[in-house]
């Protein structure tokens, strides 16, 4: 476990040394997908779908700024409603791509990962369509060849379920012990524990350091620059 987010120290080095396959979450480690189109706006539009059917929302869903909370609640009502909400969320994610902001030092991480001999895969609860659109817009479709992301209207397949991580492991013909997910949410860390991979918590906002560490992250960083340097310093043997 790391000591502080500003000095990841030996914990980050140990994780990187064991990593042949690096998995990056999308919203957070790659970019802020809703930098321009705010998540509160997306969530409100999804709630409008349920309100249009006179569905009473629980207080926590009514107050949430997280669109995935509305999606998950829709799935408790009917698969058809979940599919409608998921399709609208995909459209909104696609609309958000042009104003998404790249994470600081993410391009250095991508370059360092490839130059150190490791594979790089995106593993995301966001829609696969939005992820691919972002990669094309930022000329990353070549450097990041594998995307494992949301393609189903079933929220139970999303992190913290290990389903997407299991798919990423299989896509890379990998041993879970040689895989590491970089994620900025507790759900990312919980998914890695189920899938048997390593985890690096990305504390990109105040208050995340403790929650990611408590969830069981093997290391916690506050800047992707730490990860880029660690990858560069530990190339895989040929």
Please state the structural category: alpha/beta
By DSSP, the count of extended strands is 8
CATH class of the largest domain: Alpha Beta
Compressed to H and E, one letter per element, the order equals HEEHHHHEHEHEHEHEHEH
In DSSP terms, counting alpha (H) and pi (I) runs of 4 or more, how many helices? 11
Q: What is the H level of CATH, i.e. the homologous superfamily of the largest domain? A: HAD superfamily/HAD-like
Q: Gap between N and C termini, in Å?
A: 29 Å
Low-confidence stretches: 1-6
Q: What does the oligomeric state look like here?
A: single chain
The CATH architecture of the largest domain can be named as 3-Layer(aba) Sandwich
User: Order of strands across the widest beta sheet?
Assistant: 5-4-1-6-7-8
Major β-sheet, in short? Answer: 6 strands, parallel
Q: Percent of residues in beta strands?
A: 5-15%
How many domains make up the 3D coordinates? 2
Q: How would you describe the shape?
A: globular
The value of Rg in angstroms is: 18 Å
- Estimate percent helicity: 40-55%
CATH domain fold name of the largest domain: Rossmann fold
> How confident is the prediction overall: mean pLDDT?
95
């Amino acid at each position: 476990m790391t000591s502080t987010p500003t000095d990841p120290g030996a914990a980050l080095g140990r994780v990187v040394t064991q990593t042949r396959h690096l998995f990056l979450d999308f919203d957070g480690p790659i970019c802020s997908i809703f930098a321009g189109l705010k998540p509160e706006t997306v969530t409100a539009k999804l709630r409008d779908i349920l309100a249009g059917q006179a569905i009473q929302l629980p207080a926590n869903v009514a107050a949430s700024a997280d669109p995935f909370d509305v999606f998950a609640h829709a799935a408790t009502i009917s698969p058809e409603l979940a599919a409608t909400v998921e399709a609208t969320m995909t459209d909104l994610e696609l609309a958000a791509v042009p104003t998404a902001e790249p994470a600081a030092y993410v391009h250095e991480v991508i370059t360092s990962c490839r130059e150190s001999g490791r594979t790089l895969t995106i593993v995301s609860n966001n829609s696969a369509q939005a992820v691919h659109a972002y990669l094309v817009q930022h000329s990353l479709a070549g450097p990041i060849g594998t995307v494992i992301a949301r393609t189903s209207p079933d929220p139970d397949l999303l992190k913290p379920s290990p389903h997407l991580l299991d798919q990423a492991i299989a896509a890379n013909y990998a041993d879970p012990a040689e895989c590491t997910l970089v994620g900025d949410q507790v759900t990312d860390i919980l998914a890695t524990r189920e899938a048997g991979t390593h985890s690096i918590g990305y504390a990109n906002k105040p208050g995340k350091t403790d929650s990611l560490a408590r969830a069981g992250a093997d290391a916690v960083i506050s800047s992707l620059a730490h990860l880029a340097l660690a990858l560069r310093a530990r190339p895989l043997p040929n």
